[in-house]
C-alpha cells in the first residue's frame, strides 16, 4: 500500500514512522522498527576502509560520526578515518546518508518506495542549513521536505487532539533542548534552542557523579590508563543511563559497579536524582516560560527526557505527554508528509483520546508509564490510545552483519585509505 515516511535524525537515535495512504482506518502513524534501541537505530555512521558506511554500529571513534543531525550548517566537517589523514564529511552529507539508509530499509520492508519523505529538523535551522540539507538529500536520491521538529510535534498532537490557540512544545532529548510555540496554522511562531542547556546525557552524568561520590577513593584510585578501568567506566556510564531511565518508573534503584575488588551496588532514589537535576530542569522551564510568555493553550512534551516525572511536573499550564514522547516528532513528520501528499482537507478529524494531560496542579498529572494518578476533567476522555505498533524489522543480527550503505563516498572526498594499523 502506498505510504509516506517521516524521519527524525536525533543526536542519539534515528527514528522512522510511516503513514499509509488509503486502506481502512485513520492512517495512524506507525513507528518503524529499525533494529536499535527504542525502535530506532543509533545515529552513528562508521566509515569503513572501502568507503562505505556501517549504520548504527558502535565503533572506533576515529572512524565513527555521531551527532551530525544537529551540526548541519556547521562549516567544520567531520574527519573520519586514520590519524594520518581522514575523510572529510559534512554533517549534511552524513545526515542525508542516514535518511537514505532509513528510506531503503523501509522500502525493502514495504516493497515500494515512499510517496514522500519528511525530515524533521531542529527549529533553529535557517535557509542556509535547510538549503544544505536539501542539496545533500537530493544528491543521495531522496526527495524530502523539511519540517521543524516542533511543527512535527504539533502535527502529531493534532492527530489526536484539536487545538484552537497556540501550542507550546517543550523538547528535551539526549543532547538538545528547545522551547517553541506553534500557531494554529502549524506555523512556528517562536523557538529557542538551549545552547548550554543540560539534557539527557547530562542527567546521566549526574547519576555518574552520585556513584563517584558514593564510592570515593574506591573509584578515584583506579588507574585511568588501565584498559580494564576504561572498560569499567564505559559500562558504568551505560548503567547510569539505565538507572536514570529506571527512575522514571520506580522510586529507587541501584547502579552496579564492577570494581576490581568485586561488584558493588550503589543505591539511588528518585528524590536524590531529582535534587541533582532540578537546577537544569528549572533552567529549561524558565526558558520555556519566556518563549511562551504570550500564553499557550497547552504544551506538549517531546523527547526521551520528557519521560522524567520531574520534567512533566515542572512545566506550567496544561501539559500533554505521550507514553513514548521520543516518537512524537517522527510520527508528526510522517503525518506532515501525508498532509503534503493528500492535502490538508483530506486529513481525518482528530479523535479526543491520546495522551496524558495535566493542568496546573502537578499532582494531577500522570506519572509516565502509569495511569494511577488522581482523576482530572481532562482524563474523562477515552483512555489513551494503545502503544504504537513497533514492528520488528527483519534485519540481520547487529554485530554479525554490518548494515552498510554500499558504494557511497562522501561527495567531493577521496575514498578512505586503508588505515596504517591494518583496520
Ligand atoms: N524512561 C526514561 N527516563 C528518562 N530518560 C529517558 C527515558 N527513556 C529515554 N530517556 C532518555 O532520552 C534520551 C533520548 O531521547 P531522544 O531519543 O528524544 O533523543 P535524540 O532525538 O536522539 O536526541 P536529541 O533530540 O537531543 O538530538 C536519552 O538521554 C535517554 O537516556
Ligand atoms: Mg530528538
Give the helix tally.
Answer: 9
> How many DSSP-defined strands?
20
Integer-rounded radius of gyration: 22 Å
Question: How would you state the average pLDDT, rounded?
Answer: 83
Query: Order of helices and strands, N to C?
Result: EEEEEEEEEHEHEHEEEHHHEEHEHEHEE
Oligomer: single chain
Would you write up a description of this structure?
The chain has 423 residues and is an alpha+beta fold. It has 2 domains: 3-198 and 283-408, 2-Layer Sandwich (Nucleotidyltransferase, domain 5); 200-274, Actin, Chain A, domain 4 (Alpha-Beta Complex). 30% of the residues lie in helices and 22% in strands. The chain has helices at 91-110, 127-139, 149-160, 200-215, 217-220, 227-246, 270-291, 309-314, 328-342, and strands at residues 3-9, 13-20, 30-32, 41-42, 44-47, 53-55, 64-66, 78-80, 87-89, 117-121, 144-148, 167-172, 177-182, 188-193, 252-259, 262-269, 298-302, 319-321, 356-358, 404-405. Strands 1, 2, 3, 4, 10 and 11 form a 6-stranded mixed beta sheet that branches. A 6-stranded mixed beta sheet has the order 14-13-12-17-18-19, sandwiched between helices. Strands 7-5-6-20 form a 4-stranded antiparallel beta sheet, covered by helices on one side. A hairpin with a 5-residue loop joins β5 (44-47) and β6 (53-55). α1 (91-110) crosses α2, α3 packs across α9 (328-342) and α4 (200-215) packs across α6 (227-246). The relative contact order is 0.18. It binds adenosine-5'-triphosphate and magnesium ion.
